[in-house]
Amino acid sequence: MEKLLVRAPINEECRSKLNDLFEEVVYVPWTDSGERYYEREMVDCLLREKPDALITELDVINEKVLKEYSDLKFIGDCRASPENIDVEACKKYNIPVLCTPARNANAVAEMWLGSVIAFERNLVDSVNWVKGKKWKEGTTPYYLWMGNEIYKKKIGFVGFGAVARNIARLLQGFDVEIVYCDPFVKDVEKYQKVGLEEIFSNSDYVTVHLPVNKNTKGMVDEHLLSLMKSNSIFINSSRSAVVDNDVLYKFVSSKKIRGAILDVLDTEPPTETDARVADIPNILLTPHIYGASHQVVDHQSEIITRNIIDYMNENNLTSQSMEDS
Known about the structure:
The chain is built from 15 helices and twelve strands. It has helices spanning about 10-20, 30-35, 40-50, 65-70, 85-90, 105-120, 125-130, 140-145, 160-170, 195-200, 220-225, 245-255, 270-275, 295-315, 320-325, and strands spanning about 5, 25, 55, 75, 95-100, 155-160, 175-180, 190-195, 205-210, 235, 260, 285. A seven-stranded parallel sheet has the order 8-7-6-9-10-11-12, sandwiched between helices.
């Protein structure tokens, strides 16, 4: 194949492999320009470069873009799912979309574990207490900031894909009980598959790992949240839209459940209403950064390069075949 346009960060090792596959590789990742391309910028870029294939991460690819430039043989999207791409429009123009599932599964898993420990051991508040010069003679921080261990707790996963399984792997040393609910996952050795209501009723930590679709949007509703034990913690590092967050905030504020650990909000950046969530004392809120590690670039580079190699081999997409077509 002749020309590849790369709009996502790809490491040097994988760029070298891509250079062997294509006659020309134009590497202009969004991290260099500092922003994604929206419709007009994307059209202008494609018309200027005229690539045969594209690797992107954040750029908007919709029907308006493809109507003006539909010569792509495939699109590689460095996302677990192509949220920036209109897949139906790509199908209309016969352009396959290759994704990078689980590219940040390890990053999210590590952050999940760190956040739970930080929440349970009062890490943020105790650090701020020291920084605020409140450690005075006569105070006893050992008792003031005494927290809880994860040890021997029951952790219920709603969705048991790559991220959830990475978390479960990291939890092996904590002697916890792990149960999960996922209609698309068959029995997994070492872990018990249970019903959704049982997850919410009996878990010390309920952790959600779901995509947003017509079946999951608003799935975690008042009924399910009302089943949670008063000393339990709710965790959502996947998508805000799968939860009725108004009910969740009400339950946490009134201490019907002990707390929540969140990396996602209904609006990002948050509206004034959403921003108030950070003021609820028993909520630990981070700004959608669970998957943000420098190593994710290496993961996505390896996955998308492997997927492209496989796709080109399966479809005989070589420079010679392009010339013959």
